[in-house]
Every structure is written in structure tokens, then in C-alpha cells.
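Hey Z.,

So I finally got round to the iron/sulfur cluster thing we talked about over coffee. Here's the setup:
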Amino acid sequence: MNRQKICSQIKNCHKCELAISRNNAICPEGNPKGRFLIVAQAPGEQEDKADSMFVGPSGTVLRQIITEHRLNTKNYYWTNLLKCNLPHNRKPKQREIDACSEFLLQEIEEVKPEIIVPLGFYASRFIFSQFHLDFPVEKAEFYKNFGELQWTGKFKVLPLAHPASILHRPELKENISEKYAILKTLETYCCWHRSCPMKKFTEKGIIDPSWRQLYCLGNWQNCVRFQMESRGQPHPDWMLPDGTLMEYLKQC
Ligand code: SF4
Ligand code: SF4
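And the result:
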């Protein structure tokens, strides 16, 4: 990825009114070939002053979560939906998202991440709508999607709460941090992914590839088969990762 080129475009951008109030337009950071592409909402006041991502209070919370779950930061590329600070932490306007998302789409195209992780409502709504994933009509409903892995046909999407939520509502810390633990699971594939019949069923085209992406190469700790294996319980080969028994797979 030509990081210098995109950074120079961001630094010189005046496509929306946020260019007037910003000190710095913030460039993406991390591994340009990262498996995970993290999309935060926008730089905060301290990021705007320091010209760097995640140096403010939200960044401190995020770094704590990363340490807590021992995430391998070498796997990550970090960026924002909006590259300039939102004055007084106001909500982003649709015309600002429309103007700035061109950069994000260019970054996705170049990084080719395996998993996109939008943080918070606005980044998640943009990624969901852009890649034709179902988005709940009610905002209150959306929060139920945090921690639910999705498959677009090209890459996985894991929406998570923005770390700033913990600053606003510390009582949610445990629940939010638990969802971030899925990132650790996603850093590796299921230990059975090469030998499990799901691979054969996918290659033969008899089950939807999303099963393998969402479980075997995704959140394998959620797989009923995996959980039964871990407890030493027998299970039939024709069981799907959600525990559904598919009789027709007996013949394959
Ligand atoms: S927020 Fe994005 S579109 Fe608006 S000025 Fe900054 S870089 Fe340009
Ligand atoms: S189906 Fe379950 S046990 Fe088998 S590889 Fe996938 S996640 Fe692992």
C-alpha cells in the first residue's frame, strides 16, 4: 500500500467543513498488510493535537483492552471513518461521512484485510451498508450486533463497541471487553480446520462457505462441534457448527 500517497491526500484534504476546525488530519497507522482493519469513528481532541491515533482517553482504554487480551498488534491496521476531529465530540454528519469514506474504501481495497472491525455505531453503520449486510432500523437494536461476526462474501466484519463507551458507562466494561476477546480467537483458526469435514463439504460446494468463514476460520469458540470436542463428547460428522444436524451430509 502506498501509505505516503494516501497520507498526503488526507493531510491536504478540504472536502468537508472539518478541515476548517482541525489541527491535523490523522493518517492511518499499523501494518499496511494487517489481517485486521480497525475503523474508529474519528480522532479525538488529543489525537488532533498530537497528530497521532489513540493517544487520548479512548486510546488509553483501547490499549488496556489490547494488553488484557494479549492481542498481537502486528496483525492490525488502524484507521478512522473520519480523518479529522469532530468539534466538541459532536456526531458526524452524513455529508462528512460521504466525503471522507472515499479514503476508507481506498484503504480497504489496498490493505485487503481478512477481518474489518468497525468500532461504534457510525463506523459499523457505514461498513454494514457499504457491504450489504443487514443493518437494524432502530439504533437501540444495533448494539445487539456488537461481537456478532458477519461474512460479506469477501471478508469478515466484527462490529465492536467504541472504547469511548467504557468512558461514558464504566459499568459496561466487562461486557465490552468480553466481546473484544473474540479478536484473540480470530488471531488463529480452529485447530480442527484442516481435518474437519466442514472443509470437504465447503470444497464440494454442498454447504454455504459462510459456515467455514464464520466458524472454522472465524469465531471457532462459538462452534457447537468444537465445544463438544473440547468436552470429549462424541458428535456426528453431519452436524453444522451451530449444532444443526443435516441428514443429507451423511451421504457426502
Ligand atoms: S474529515 Fe475527511 S473529508 Fe473531511 S476534511 Fe478531513 S480528511 Fe477531508
Ligand atoms: S466445524 Fe467447528 S470444530 Fe470443525 S473446524 Fe469448524 S470450528 Fe472447528
